[in-house]
Each structure stands twice: as structure tokens, then as C-alpha cells.
């Protein structure tokens, strides 16, 4: 009985895997919102360092991980992979359940896997300050940690709802030297406009992104960093799945199903893409399922069309599953999943039915998260509980059908700073929440962006 499967530092992968090289239908190009013509990578230059722009558009199958980045990774990588024997017993299922645990990073989630290389490439190009947004505070923490390592200033726009709910996330960022502002803020035109119309606005990732971009675009030595959605972010996260393949091999097993929670797609891509590579290269039939909240269901109920990545419409138009860029999700606790759209690569994969998606209600995910904590000890981040809800569904299906499948999921972060969320759940303050057909239609109808 092996509960914990470890790798040594030398086994940290040397390359990131770029799934674009293997996709049967390549992602459609981003468009200039004014001309509706495809835009080239050069238009991203005011916001991102050149090396990351190259990674955004590369079609090479693998990208070398710089030695310096691998050295920093070794502070917490390789991360452990566990067999969830206790959870299996709790569920009385014939399924075998494994999880990859990304909560061992200094900031408690998978986010430093991309924050570190992003800060590294910015440093190489002489950038002095990086601005960003954060929802639950996980991405802001990761970028603060990485910027501190490379001596770069970090300015974080934190969705107001989380800013108020999670004071300790803010203090964490301050500890690594970052400046944190509640968004919408009065520091940007975008923020001031929104506050003028709605002084009590609790913010959204889309608004915080607009604020961070506005700040970066207005200063030459400042760049912007995004913690999800973009191709280079997903590329960096593939370190997770590549390690997981080595670990599953050591366990003498291979998953039939790979599951991860879904906000913009980075941790899902991180664990799933290397397994999808096995489907492409070796003809395996591993099912990959993205788990999203039913109060922000872009994959299961959104439309596939061009839309902006932010609320104010400052980004290029991207082909994605979306609920509409000014959709403000209900104030659920899984801050990292409150985003209106899905990354371009994942959207194309879903359109082509190469991956699946499932939505879960607020109540259901906290029940799943609490069950997991009781069985396995680790208290999952509210985002991660969505993946666990899908795991439980699949494990129960195995039980009903009397078949044993191997399930692997990404426990992308711990919930140690999310006690307010668990408190609300225990006090009965978390209610079932599902969007009506009407609400979704209204938000999507407002779009005047190109249909695909
Ligand atoms: C940011 C975050 C998410 C959502 O973002 P993805 O890009 O979809 O991974 C999910 N879980 C945790 C713990 C996060 O920090």
C-alpha cells in the first residue's frame, strides 16, 4: 500500500509541453476589436516581455525550462501525488482515486508554477514593476512571491469581495513586498467610472484585469501578468501533469479519468494536457473533465464566440466559451472560478469534444470539500472542491455500475486562508445558486462581438 508517491529533484521535467503542436484544430487567432483583423504578437508588446509573447504563439511541441526557474521550482517541486485510500473507503467505491497536491508551494496553490517563469522573463528584459489582478488572492500571492525573488515591484488589484473576505491573503502579499488595492479602485479610469455608477460594486476578475492593464499600459517600465487563461500560462502549468505521469507510472497505474477545477483553465490544463498528449501520441482514451461552479458556468452553458478577456474591453478579442465580458458572477467563495470566460486552447478542445465539462452547485462543493478534509486531512481551497465534487460523482458511478476506474484529480490548493468560506458553510449561509436561462441569455445578448 503506497499512499504517497514522490519524485526527486532531478526528476523535475526539463521542458514544458505545448499542446497546440498536437491539436487537430488550432486555436483561432485573436482579433483587433476595432478592425476585426487578426492581430500579431507584436501588439502584446506593451504588456508582456518578448519571451512570453513568443511562448504565447509558439507551435513547438516542447519549450525548455530555464535552469534558474527549475532551481526555484525545486523549493517545492516535485509535488507529491497521493492515493486517496481513505476517501475511497468513505465513498465505498471500487474506483481508485489519486490526487496531485499543488498546495505544498510557498503560496499554497499551483500559481507559482507560472508566476516564477513570468517574473524571470520580465527580469531578463529589465522590467521594474508588474501589475496584476487577483480574485481569491492565490495569484496575487504567487506573483508577489515571484517578484520579490527577482526584486521587481508588484502592484495587485484584488477583487473587492475577496479583499474584504480574505484580509490574510492581502497581508501575505504585503509580506513579500507587494502593494494591494481593492478593485474597483480610484487609481484607474476604469475603476473610477465603475465606482461612480455603482459605489458598492464588489468587483470581478474582469474589472481587476482592466485596472491592472490600464496601469501597465500607461508606464514603459511596467508590464502586466495574467495568472490564467493565456497560452503561456497553461504551458508553464504542464509541469504538473508531466510529473503526475511519472508518478502514476511509479504507482504502476494510469488514470482513466483526469479531473480539475476550472476558472480560466490553468490548473486544469496543467494536469490534463500531458495526459491528452498520451491520447494524441499513444492512442490512449483518458477522459479529462473540467469542473466549474453552476453560478459561473461558461463551459457548460456559455457560448463559443469572440469576446474580451476583461470587463472594460481593453484586451484583444479572443475565441472562447464565455458568459459575456460584463457578466458579474454571484459572490460565491471560490473567487478563483469567478471569471466570465475560458482560455482559448481549452475552449477549442471543448468545442472539438476532446475534453468534457461539468458544473456543480455551491452547496454540493462544500459538502464534497468537507468530506475530503475528513477523509484525507487536507482542507481544500474552495476552488478545488469543485474538482472533488466531480471525483465523487465519478466514484459513485463506478460503485453503481460495479466497475473500477482509476481517477486522478488536481488538488490545486489548500484552503487554509479560506476559513470564512467554511465558516459560512457551517453556519448555513451558503445557498444553492443556479443561473436562470434568462440571466445567461441577457448577458450573452449584450455581446456585439463576432460569432464563430
Ligand atoms: C486560481 C485558482 C484556480 C482557478 O484558476 P485556473 O486558471 O482555472 O486554475 C483554481 N484553484 C486555485 C486554488 C486557484 O488558486
Explain this structure.
The structure is a single chain. By secondary structure, the protein is α/β, with parallel strands linked by helices. The chain is 40% helix and 16% strand. Strands 1-4-5-15-10-11-14 form a seven-stranded mixed beta sheet, sandwiched between helices. Helix 12 links the parallel strand 10 (257-261) and strand 11 (287-293). Helix 4 packs parallel to helix 5, helix 5 (138-149) packs parallel to helix 7 (167-175) and helix 11 (239-250) crosses helix 12 (266-282). The chain is globular, with a radius of gyration of 20 Å. The termini are far apart. The structure holds pyridoxal-5'-phosphate. The site of pyridoxal-5'-phosphate (PLP) has 21 residues, from helix 5 and helix 12.
Task: Give the helix/strand layout.
Blueprint: E1 4-5, E2 15-17, H1 50-57, E3 62-64, H2 67-73, E4 81-83, H3 85-91, E5 96-101, H4 112-124, E6 129-134, H5 138-149, E7 153-159, H6 160-165, H7 167-175, E8 179-183, H8 189-197, H9 205-217, E9 222-224, H10 231-237, H11 239-250, E10 257-261, H12 266-282, E11 287-293, H13 298-301, E12 303-308, E13 317-322, H14 344-351, E14 356-360, H15 362-376, H16 384-401, E15 406-411, H17 419-426, H18 437-445
Parallel strand pairs: 5-15, 6-7, 6-9, 7-8, 10-11, 10-15, 11-14
Antiparallel strand pairs: 1-4, 2-3, 4-5, 12-13
The protein binds pyridoxal-5'-phosphate (PLP).
The site of pyridoxal-5'-phosphate (PLP) has 21 residues, from helix 5 and helix 12.
Amino acid at each position: 500500500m503506497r499512499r504517497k508517491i514522490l519524485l526527486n529533484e532531478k526528476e523535475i521535467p526539463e521542458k514544458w509541453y505545448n499542446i497546440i503542436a498536437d491539436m487537430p484544430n488550432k486555436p483561432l487567432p485573436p482579433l483587433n476589436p476595432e478592425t476585426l483583423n487578426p492581430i500579431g504578437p507584436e501588439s502584446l508588446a506593451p504588456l508582456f516581455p518578448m519571451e512570453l509573447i513568443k511562448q504565447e504563439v509558439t507551435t513547438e511541441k516542447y519549450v525548455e525550462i530555464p535552469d534558474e526557474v527549475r532551481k526555484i521550482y525545486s523549493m517545492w517541486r516535485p509535488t507529491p501525488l497521493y492515493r486517496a485510500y481513505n476517501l475511497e473507503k468513505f465513498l465505498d467505491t471500487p474506483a481508485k482515486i489519486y490526487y496531485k497536491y499543488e498546495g505544498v508551494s510557498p503560496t499554497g496553490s499551483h500559481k507559482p508554477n507560472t508566476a516564477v517563469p513570468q517574473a524571470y522573463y520580465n527580469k531578463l528584459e529589465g522590467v521594474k514593476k508588474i501589475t496584476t489582478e487577483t480574485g481569491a488572492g492565490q495569484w496575487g500571492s504567487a506573483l508577489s512571491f515571484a517578484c520579490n525573488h527577482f526584486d521587481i515591484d508588484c502592484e495587485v488589484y484584488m477583487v473587492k469581495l475577496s479583499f474584504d473576505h480574505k484580509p490574510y491573503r492581502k497581508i501575505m502579499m504585503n509580506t513579500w513586498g507587494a502593494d494591494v488595492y481593492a478593485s474597483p479602485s480610484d487609481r484607474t479610469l476604469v475603476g473610477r467610472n465603475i465606482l461612480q455608477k455603482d459605489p458598492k460594486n464588489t468587483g470581478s476578475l474582469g474589472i481587476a484585469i482592466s485596472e491592472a492593464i490600464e496601469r501597465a499600459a500607461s508606464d514603459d517600465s511596467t508590464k502586466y501578468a495574467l495568472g490564467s487563461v493565456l497560452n503561456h500560462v497553461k504551458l508553464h502549468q504542464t509541469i504538473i501533469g508531466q510529473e503526475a505521469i511519472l508518478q502514476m507510472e511509479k504507482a504502476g497505474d494510469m488514470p482513466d479519468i483526469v479531473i480539475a477545477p476550472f476558472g480560466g483553465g490553468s490548473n486544469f490544463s496543467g494536469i490534463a494536457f500531458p495526459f491528452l498528449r498520451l491520447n494524441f501520441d499513444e492512442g490512449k482514451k483518458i477522459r479529462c473533465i473540467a469542473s466549474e461552479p453552476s453560478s459561473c458556468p461558461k463551459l457548460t452553458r456559455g457560448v463559443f464566440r469572440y469576446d474580451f478577456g476583461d470587463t472594460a474591453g481593453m484586451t484583444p478579442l479572443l475565441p472562447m466559451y464565455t458568459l459575456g465580458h460584463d457578466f458579474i458572477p454571484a459572490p460565491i467563495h471560490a473567487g478563483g472560478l469567478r471569471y466570465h470566460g475560458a482560455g482559448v486552447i481549452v475552449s477549442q478542445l471543448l468545442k472539438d469534444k476532446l475534453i468534457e465539462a461539468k458544473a456543480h452547485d455551491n452547496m454540493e462543493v462544500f459538502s464534497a470539500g468537507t468530506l475530503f478534509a475528513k477523509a484525507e486531512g487536507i482542507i481544500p481551497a474552495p476552488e478545488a472542491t469543485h474538482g472533488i465534487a466531480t471525483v465523487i460523482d465519478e466514484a459513485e458511478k463506478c460503485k453503481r455500475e460495479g466497475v473500477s476506474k482509476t481517477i486522478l484529480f488536481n488538488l490545486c490548493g489548500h484552503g487554509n486562508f479560506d476559513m470564512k468560506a467554511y465558516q459560512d458553510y457551517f453556519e448555513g449561509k451558503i445557498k444553492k445558486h443556479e443561473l436562470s436561462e434568462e440571466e445567461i441569455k441577457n448577458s450573452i445578448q449584450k455581446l456585439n462581438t463576432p460569432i464563430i
